[in-house]
Amino acid sequence: MGKGKLAKFAEMKTMKNVFEYPFSVVDNVPFTMKGHWREQYFNNDNPIVLELGCGKGEYTVGLGRLFPNVNFIGVDIKGARMWTGAKQALEEGLDNVAFLRTNIEIIDRFFDPDEVQEIWLTFSDPQMKNPRKRLSSTYFLERYRHFLVDGGIMHLKTDSNFLFTYTRLMVEKNQLPVEVCTEDLYHDTPAAIVDSPILSIQTYYESMWMARGLNIRYMRFHLPHEGQLQEPEEEIELDDYRSYHRTKRSSLKTAK
Which GO terms describe its molecular function (predicted)? Predict the structure, then answer.
């Protein structure tokens, strides 16, 4: 690990808005704030919104600026990236923004039932080879149900046609209520959000994707507690890239 990363990890341990509970320690270090985020950290009764896979925390911080009466928590396991958003939130005095460094697979260990009102999935890894790792899969949606209010809102914002299509098929198969669904957020903006301040938040990589001519896709749907969730069975065309700098390695053209 480089000196820069080591310095960031060391500084994060001193940040009051960062809570670090990676999978390797969570069983041995009790998380006493579960069910008490509002009174023990935010000191208010405002709604709690999570951004899962927050990366550098640009979106979490951006939401915190726009909605001072909502509490936002960015979640990711990569601390060196998270440092950027955590430091910025402290410098700007955003008391409604916090960060949790942990594995999303165990996210339900940190929140009590009905403690969270909304979840954002922003530019998540589409995990084209492994359905279970997709953050909109039944594996994760069932975990979200443990702490998201009944009918809580899910936001998906992505450059990936694969992940967007997979999530749309998931929503359709399970008849989850959809509020907004567009394959081109900035050029085919649905009337329901045409005046929404969320359109003003663009992460660094989002701007880069747009510069390359890729559409930004957005979906907002509700996740009820009732009903057994099922995976879609359709074959989906794979994205022709894996990340900003890498093209797709596999010769496969579709996947479920």
Answer: tRNA (guanine(46)-N7)-methyltransferase activity
Give strand ranges (E) for 168-237: 178-182, 217-223, 236-237
Full set of structural domains in the chain with CATH: 3-255 (3.40.50.150)
Residue of 27, 95, 112, 125 marked catalytic = 125
Q: pLDDT (tens digit, 0 to 9) for every residue of the chain, 256 residues total?
A: 566 888 998 999 999 999 998 876 667 677 899 999 999 999 999 999 999 999 999 999 999 999 999 999 999 998 889 999 999 999 999 999 999 999 999 999 999 999 999 999 999 999 999 999 999 999 999 999 999 999 999 999 999 999 999 999 999 999 999 999 999 999 999 999 999 999 999 888 898 888 888 899 999 999 999 999 999 999 999 998 655 454 554 556 677 6
Using alpha carbons, select from 156, 153, 111, 151 the residue that is nearest to residue 134. Answer: 156
Binding residues: 51, 76, 103, 125, 159, 203-206
DSSP-derived secondary structure letter, 161: H
**Catalytic (active site) residue 125:** yes
Q: Which residue numbers belong to the known binding site for S-adenosyl-L-methionine?
A: 51, 76, 103, 125
Q: For residue 212, give both structure tokens.
A: 């390359």
CA 114 to chain centre: 18
